[in-house]
Design a protein that fits this description.
Layout lengths: L6 H23 L4 H15 L6 E5 L5 H7 L4 E6 L2 H10 L7 E4 L5 H5 L6 E7 L9 H10 E12 L8 E8 L6 E8 L8 E3 L9 E3 L4 H10 L2 E7 L24 E8 L5
Parallel strand pairs: 1-2, 1-4, 2-3, 4-5
Antiparallel strand pairs: 5-11, 6-7, 8-9, 10-11
Length: about 270
């Protein structure tokens, strides 16, 4: 899908798609859907441990939902996204809440991130955006320069082992023991070699967006190579429900997490 496209052109095309989708996403997501409010936000808070008065950078903030959540806790938030349309939407939603410093920043350009200040932040967070980025190494290289010495970096992603273009939610009929039941599972057809492609995260979104699956080893090694040390991880899953709204939804497989959250701190050798 991305064969023959230069990295620069791919970033440009990716930005155009999100500029086009921003209004739809803002109207559909608002202050967070079930995935964000029930899984992502609690997992991030548990690892991030935000405190009033701290300064936190929210990278790839989208419409600012989590930035507003942090600001409501007394955190001084600088939030950035490479899509101007998302930043406009975020600013419009902020009108009646705590002030947030919004910037248009491309997280695939290390220099743009580092322009936000050396060792200026108590924490950096990036929610569900690494698979939307053409390259993640610039972000990881910038993190140690952005964080205070005792700072922390937390990201969430669709779980790279279970929730990607090479996996499927499935429902199968089981007649074991003479009784027919429906069993739900995740089928993983590929993992190490899932090619970049186009994806749809929300039904009816105007344009499919590029998705860049990376095995867990690629993501962690990008962090380790930048001198980051992992010291916390969470794999949140939906609790079981008696009757899921659909046969094929994550609540049907409560023992399998759709999200991975991880915390890192500066401290290792790099470059």
């Amino acid at each position: 899908m991305t064969h023959g496209i230069s990295r620069r052109d791919l970033v440009h095309r990716t930005r155009e798609i999100w500029e086009h989708n921003a209004a739809f996403w803002d109207e559909r997501i608002g202050d967070g859907d079930d995935l964000h409010t029930r899984l992502i936000a609690p997992a991030v808070e548990g690892l991030l441990r935000p405190e009033s008065g701290q300064r936190i950078l929210d990278v790839a903030c989208g419409n600012g939902a989590f930035a507003r959540h942090l600001a409501g806790k007394g955190v001084h938030v600088l939030a950035c996204d490479f899509a101007e349309a998302f930043i406009r939407r975020a600013r419009a939603r902020e009108a009646s809440g705590p002030e947030i410093d919004y910037r248009v920043i491309d997280a695939t350009v290390e220099g743009q991130l580092r322009s936000l200040g050396d060792h200026a932040f108590d924490a950096v967070v990036c929610n569900m955006a690494l698979t939307d980025m053409v390259a993640i190494e610039p972000l990881f290289w910038a993190i140690p320069q952005l964080l205070k010495p005792d700072g922390r970096f937390v990201f969430t992603i669709s779980h790279p082992c279970f929730n990607h273009a090479g996996s499927r939610l499935i429902a199968e009929e089981d007649a074991t023991g003479g009784q027919r039941t429906i069993r739900h599972a995740i089928r993983v057809d590929s993992y190490l070699d899932v090619a970049p492609g186009r994806d749809i995260s929300l039904d009816d979104q105007p344009q499919s967006h590029f998705s860049f699956h990376r095995p867990l080893s690629d993501i962690l090694n990008a962090a380790f190579n930048a001198g980051l040390v992992m010291d916390g991880v969470a794999e949140p899953a939906f609790p079981p429900v008696p009757e899921p709204r659909s046969m094929l939804e994550w609540a049907s497989v409560p023992s399998i997490p759709p999200v991975l959250a991880a915390r890192f701190r500066p401290g290792g050798s790099a470059r």
